[in-house]
Amino acid sequence: MARAMVLIWTCYCVVLATKCVHCLGVNWGTQASTPLDPQYVVQMLKDNKIKKVKLFDSDHWTVGHFAGTGIEVMLGIPNLNLKEFSDDYDTVEDYIKENVTDHLRDHGGVDIKYIAVGNEPFLKAYKGAFEKTIFPALKNVQKALNKAGLGNKIKATIPQNADVYDSGSAGPSAGDFRPEIRDIMVKISRFLDQHNCPFMVNIYPFLSLYENEDFPIEFAFFEGGGKGVQDQNIRYTNMFDANLDTLSYALKKAGVSNIKIIVGEIGWPTNGHKQANPKMAQKFYHGLLNKLSSNKGTPRNPGYIEVYLFSLTDENKKSIAPGFFERHWGIFRYDGQPKFPIDLSGEGNEKMPVGAKNVKYLDKQWCVLNDDMRNLSKVNRDLEYACSLSDCTSLSYGSTCNKLSERKNVSYAFNMYFQMSQQSVEACDFNGAGKITNRNYSTDECLFPVELMSGGGRNVAGMISFLVGLFSLLVIL
Ligand SMILES: *[C@@H]1O[C@H](CO)[C@@H](O)[C@H](O)[C@H]1NC(C)=O
Ligand SMILES: *[C@@H]1O[C@H](CO)[C@@H](O)[C@H](O)[C@H]1NC(C)=O
Ligand SMILES: *[C@@H]1O[C@H](CO)[C@@H](O)[C@H](O)[C@H]1NC(C)=O
Ligand SMILES: *[C@@H]1O[C@H](CO)[C@@H](O)[C@H](O)[C@H]1NC(C)=O
Fold first, then answer.
1. What EC number is given for this enzyme (predicted)?
2. 422 closest CA partner among 447, 389, 446
3. Above 90 in pLDDT, residue 225?
4. What are phi and psi of 242, to 5 degrees?
5. Fewest C-beta atoms under 10 Å: which of 148, 437, 465, 475?
6. What angle do CA 395, 399, 400 make, to 5 degrees?
7. Residue 431 sits in which domain range?
C-alpha cells in the first residue's frame, strides 16, 4: 500500500517535472552587436535548469538548436510583419510550414508551445500603428495552426504592455482596459479564450519607478512595508500582485474570467539609471522568485503563475528611446557571464548562476585615446560619432562608467566603437587620435569589453553551402 502510494507520488512528480508546470522561462533577445551563439545559450539554459525560452523572431538556424533539448520554445512574430500576416493568409501558412511544422520533425523536434504575435502592439509610442492589423494577424496565425493540425498543441497569443489596462487610483477591482482600445481588447481577449490561448502581459515595476519619482519604492519589490494599496478587504503590498489582479478584473469585465494569464516579461536592469544596478536587480529577483516558487499566486490568481524573465543577456543594440537602461536587462552580461547571485531554479539557493561556457572572444585588445592627444576639444566630435554608432549607455549618470576622467571617457567611446566594429583597424583611427593597446583599461566598476567572435555556426553553414554550390557548378561545367 505504502509502496503504491510512493509509486503514484513518483509518477505524479515525474508528470509535473516533464510537463514543466513549475519551471521558469526566460526571454532571449538578440539585438546585440554579436549575439551569443545559440549552442552556448542552450547549454546555459540547461546548466541553470531553465526549461522555457521566449524568442522575438523565428530565425530558423537559432530555433533548430533547441531540437531534442527538452527546452520549450516560444516563437515571436515582429510587429513589422503584422501587416503582411493580417492581409495575406498564404504568407501565414508558409510561415507555419517553414518555421513551425518543419522544426517539429528534425532531431527529436523543437518543443514549440506558443507563438507570440507582435510585441506590445498597443504601446502608446506606436501611436496606433498596429491597431488595425494585430487582431487579424492573431486570427490568421491560430487558423493556420489549426489547419496544420497543431491547434491543440501550439497556441497563438499577443504579448501586451501592462498599460493596456488600468484602475485609476481605485485599486485592482476597478481594473478595465483603456477606454480608447477597450473594444479591440475585449474582442482579442474573447478570441484567445475561445481558442484556449493564454493572455500574455509584460509587467515592469522598474518602469513605474523610472517614470514616476513619487512611486513608492518598496511597492516595486516584494518585502512589504510602505502604505500599499487597500482594495476593499485586500491590502496589496507589491505592484506585481496589484497589476495582475487589475488585469484579472479587466478580463472579468470582458466576460472571460477563466483565461490563463502568462507574464511574458518581467525583470530589473543593472545599468543605465541610478535605480538600475546589480544590487537592486538581485533584490527584485529574490522577491519575485521566492514568490513564484511558493506557488501562492496573487489574491485573485492563487497558485502557479507562468513567468518569463526579461532577460537572459544584455543587448547593446536595443533602442534607447525608453532610457539608457534598455541595453542592460540581462541577468547575464553580453558574453553570458553572470552579474549577481540568483536562484533560477526557484529553490531559494542564491548563488552566481552558471555562465556561458567556452565562449570565444576576439583578441585581447582595446582602442583608446592616444597619449599625445592633449587638446580634448579636438576629439569631441569623434567621441560623439563613436557613441552614436556604438553603445555609451554605461557612461550615463548613475551608471558604472560615469566616474571616468574626461580622457577615459573618450577611450571608452573609442573602444566601444572599435569592439562593435569587430575590432577593425580602421575603426580605431579617429584621424590619429585612437590607438590599439593590449592594456586592459577596465576598472573594478567599469568594464571595457572585448567583443565576441561572431556566430561560428552560421558562418560555417554558409561556407559549406557556398562550397557545395561551387562544387556543383564545377561538376556542371
Ligand atoms: C521564418 O522566420 C524568419 C525569421 O523570423 C523569417 O525571416 C522568414 O521569412 C520566415 N519564413 C516564412 C516562410 O515566413
Ligand atoms: C584645441 O582645439 C580647438 C578646436 O580645434 C581649438 O579651437 C583650440 O584653440 C585648441 N586649444 C589649444 C590650447 O590648442
Ligand atoms: C563622461 O561622459 C559622460 C556622458 O557623456 C558625462 O556625463 C561625464 O560628465 C563625462 N565625464 C567627464 C569627466 O567629462
Ligand atoms: C579586463 O579587466 C576586467 C576588470 O579587472 C576583467 O573583468 C576583464 O575580464 C578583463 N578583460 C580581459 C579581456 O581580460
1. 3.2.1.39
2. 389
3. no
4. -60, -40
5. 475
6. 85
7. 366-476
CA-nearest residue, atom 1 of ligand 2 = 375
Whether the CB of 381 sits within 6 Å of ligand 2: no
Is residue 10 in some structural domain?
no
CA angle 315/320/324 to nearest 5° reads 85
Q: Is 445 in the pocket of ligand 4 (CB under 6 A)?
A: no
Active site residues: 120, 265
Which of 327, 353, 377 is the last residue before a domain boundary?
327
Q: Is residue 222 part of a domain?
A: yes
Range scoring the smallest mean pLDDT among 20-24, 117-121, 444-448: 20-24
DSSP string, 441-457: ---SS-----PBPP-HH
pLDDT tens by residue, 251-310 = 999 999 999 999 999 999 999 999 999 999 999 999 999 999 999 999 999 999 999 999
**Grid coordinates of 366:** 582595446
Residue the block writes with cell 545559440: 38
pLDDT at residue 462 in the model? 40
Q: Which of 378, 380, 381 to mutate to test the pocket of ligand 2 (most atoms within 8 A of CB)?
A: 378
